[in-house]
Amino acid sequence: MLLDHLNAKLEAIAAKSMTRVLRVAETGTAPHQQVRGVDGQSRELLMFCSNDYLGLAAHPAVAEAYIAGVRRYGTGSGASHLISGHSAAHDAIEKALAEFVSPEIPHARALYFCTGYMANLAVVTALGDAGADIFSEELNHASLIDGTRLAKAEVKRFAHRDVAGLRALLAASTARIKLIVTDAVFSMDGDIAPLDELLALAEAFDAWLIVDDAHGFGVLGPQGRGSLARFGLRSERLILVGTLGKAAAVAGAFVAAHPTVIEYLIQAARPYIFTTAAPPAVAHALLTSLALIRTEEGEARRAQLQRLQAQLRAGLDALTSEYPQLGWQLASSDTPVQPLIIGDNAATMRLAARLEREGLRVSGIRPPTVAPGTARLRITLCGSHTAADIDRLLQALRAAAQDFAAELAA
């Protein structure tokens, strides 16, 4: 009976073309990766679905730092941070990250977490007590949404990038504590929150502004300091969550904020207190990764990303204009996340499967990750992609568009 119940749910998922399938990467993250597909066959694919935006996951200096960290600290931390698991490597990366973002958050202190999901849960649940109101952007990442569900605060959602709507909600709130919670770069759309306007509202209504910069940290702003730096923001009201497994190419996340905020998280954030600390070798490797982000090499990789984005967008603009009958739309994005909205779930997955047969891996994204009717290819770019890689993707998409258009006309 119990298995019948689950099988019925699985069949309903499949009927909506929403089944998710695991693939096995047999080599490290890189533009060209050996992948075992759903048919069990292993082949090299040109990848446009990784969040390794700067291409540092394969950088030899980061790998060597990881190895050195294992030699120095071993493979595990042994306990939670507050017992015996907080190593010199954790302390060092926290201090380096705090210094890195201090132009945006005066006197910043940073706290390291095992994952970005845990960091978001920690901040929102610890600060969102019964005396607070949380104002949550409707397109926030699942980790922020789950944080608001677990928090004791009342949650008020505002529409995507709707500053006026948020202002009205803030004005109507009588809560003692107000938390504005938003992604910086929205992971499925690639657009950027109006952080300058959100901070102005935080100042006007005495609120905290919690910003999840998972997809901006390392990529945007001077030295890759992220979305806050891109806008030139500076305030003690800012609470920054940054992911370290994307552009930083290792693992984990951090929260940077005023020292009082960080001290409170240490005392009250359950996802921090009640979990084993990440291996110190991870934090040790991140010191090298952060150094690379800040250097001329990091700047060169960000410049390459900008060139690739321009090349891809020009090609997709031409493609969607040539085949308007398909209804494909290129989302507005100035980040490495470049969504091509197809619309229908089945059509999206058919296109993704065709690309994979031709040696290109691009993720098809469907509801509930995105709204119904907006299924898409989530194309992500990496600083180690080449112009030839982009051309190959555009050629494959153009051939598919020609065939899909011919089917419509038949």
Features:
15 strands; Aspartate Aminotransferase, domain 1; alpha/beta; 2 domains; 45% helix; 410 residues; 15 helices
How would the blueprint of this fold be written?
Layout: H1 2-15, E1 24-25, E2 32-36, E3 42-47, H2 60-73, H3 81-85, H4 88-101, E4 109-113, H5 116-127, E5 132-137, H6 142-150, E6 154-158, H7 163-172, E7 177-183, H8 195-204, E8 208-212, H9 227-230, E9 238-243, E10 253-257, H10 259-268, H11 270-273, H12 280-294, H13 296-322, E11 329-330, E12 337-343, H14 345-357, E13 360-361, E14 363-365, E15 375-380, H15 387-409
Parallel strand pairs: 3-13, 5-6, 5-7, 7-8, 8-9
Antiparallel strand pairs: 1-2, 2-3, 4-10, 9-10, 11-12, 12-15, 14-15
CATH topology of the largest domain: Aspartate Aminotransferase, domain 2
Q: Into which percentage range does the β-strand content fall? A: 15-25%
Extended strand count: 15
CATH classification class of the largest domain: Alpha Beta
Task: Compute the CA-based radius of gyration.
Answer: 22 Å
Helix content: 40-55%
Termini separation: 46 Å
CATH superfamily of the largest domain: Type I PLP-dependent aspartate aminotransferase-like (Major domain)
Let me know the average pLDDT.
96
CATH architecture of the largest domain: 3-Layer(aba) Sandwich
The total domain count is 2
What is the makeup of the main sheet?
7 strands, mixed
